C-alpha cells in the first residue's frame, strides 16, 4: 500500500525529534529520523533556549527525512508553548528566547495584576495562572532595549517556521497559551494588549491549524538537499494540542494525560469554561483543532523525575531510568506524598532536596533513598492526575470513562498502573509520539490525503497505533481515597 510522507517536527522540553510520517487513508507509520537534545543554556544570569541548535537539528532531520522518503509532501512544527523570539525591523532575531523556567518572569505578576486583576484576566483569556505565561514574560521585559527594538513577536514554532519559509504569523493553538488571546472570540485580546501598554504591531496575524505557512526557502532546500517545492503547514503548533489530536479515542467520554516533561491533564470541550470556580481550580482553556477547547491543568509532570535524575547523575549516583523504576516498584505505595503542583518544584535545581523539604514540612519522613524518592514522585503524580481528572469532569460536566495517557510517560508501566488505580478507570497508554502523530494527521488532512473531523483522524490512530490497557487493581480504591484525604490536609 502506498502513502505520502510528511515530516513532523516535535520539539519537547527534553528533546527534539523529526519524524517521517507515512500517511494514507488506511496507513499511519511513524519513523524517527533524527532526535537531538534540547538543552537550555544559562548565560548572563538568564536561562535561554538554544534556538539555533534547534534550527540546526530541524535541518539535519529534514535532510534525513528526505534521504528516507525520497520526497517530502510537507513539513509541520510543534513545540512547547508560551516562549517567544522577538524580531527587529529587519526581521532579525533579537537575542535568544528566554526559557519559561527563568525566575525573572514571575517578578512581573503583581504589576500585571495591578492593571488587570486575575479574575478579569481569566474571564477574557481563560488561562490557568502560570507565572511564565507570555503576558508576564512581556511585562517583565518592559523597558528593555530588546523589547523596544522588537517589531514582531513569534512563538517558538512560528519562529522556526519563519526561518524555514520567510513567512510570519501566530498559530492559534499556541497563541492560546500566551494569556493575550481572547478565549471566546479567538482573536488577540486587543483591549488587554492596550491596557498593558504593549504595541499592537508586535502581534502577527493569527493562522489556524491546517493553514499553509509557505514553502521551504531556496536556502533551506540547499541546506537539506530536498527537492522543492515543499509546503510548510501550520499544524496544531502547541505540542499539547498536537498530542491531543494524537489521542486514539473512540468515545468522547475520555480524559487525556499528555505525559512528558509536563503532564497536561484534562478533557476536550466545544466551549470554554470561564467560571470563577474553574479559575480557582487552576484550569486552562487552550484551543485545539476544529474549534475545540483543551480544558486542562498543568501538572508538574515528569520534570520532577528528570530533574532528580540530573541531580543524582551530577553526584555520581545511578540515574538510569529502567533501573530506577524497577527499584521504585519495590517501595511500598504512599510512603511519602507531595503536592506535585507545589510551585517550588518549577525552577531547575536540586529536586530531591526540595521533595525532602516539602515532606518534612508536611510532617512526613522524607524519602530515605533514591528509589523511595522515585516512588514518592510517581505516587504523587498519580494522585495529582486523579484529582485533576475528577475536577475536570466536575467543572466541565464531561463524563470520563477512560483516561488516555500519551507521550514519553506511556513507557512508564509503573506510573500507568498507579494512574489507573488512582483514577479508578482504565488507562489506555500510548502512543508515545502522540504529538508527532497529531502533527502529521493535521498536515495530511490539509494536503487532502485524509478527510473528516477529529473522530475520523482518531479512528485511523485506533486502527494503526499500539495501545496498552491498564485496569484499576481490584481493591486499590480506598487506599487512594485515604491518600487524597492525607494530601488534602497538607495542601495550602
Ligand atoms: P517532552 O516532549 O516534554 O520532551 P517526552 O514526551 O519525550 O517529553 O517524555 C520524556 C519522558 O518520558 C522522560 O522524562 C521519561 O520520564 C519518560 N520516558 C522516556 N523513555 C522511557 C522509558 N523507556 N521508560 C520509562 N519512562 C520513559
Ligand atoms: C508542554 C507545554 C505545556 C506548556 C509548557 C510550557 O510541552 O507546551 O503545554 O504549558 O510546555
From TrEMBL:
The keyword Cytoplasm does not apply. GO terms for molecular function: ATP binding; glycerol kinase activity; rhamnulokinase activity. Residues 255-447 form the Carbohydrate kinase FGGY C-terminal domain. Its EC number is 2.7.1.5. Belongs to the FGGY kinase family. It holds the Pfam family FGGY_C. It comes from the Bacteria. This is Rhamnulokinase. Residues 471-492 are annotated as: Disordered. Keywords: ATP-binding, Disulfide bond, Kinase, Nucleotide-binding, Rhamnose metabolism, Transferase. One of its GO terms (biological process) is glycerol metabolic process. Residues 68-246 form the Carbohydrate kinase FGGY N-terminal domain. One of its GO terms (cellular component) is cytosol. It is an enzyme of class 2 (transferase). InterPro entries: ATPase_NBD, FGGY_C, FGGY_N, Rhamnulokinase.
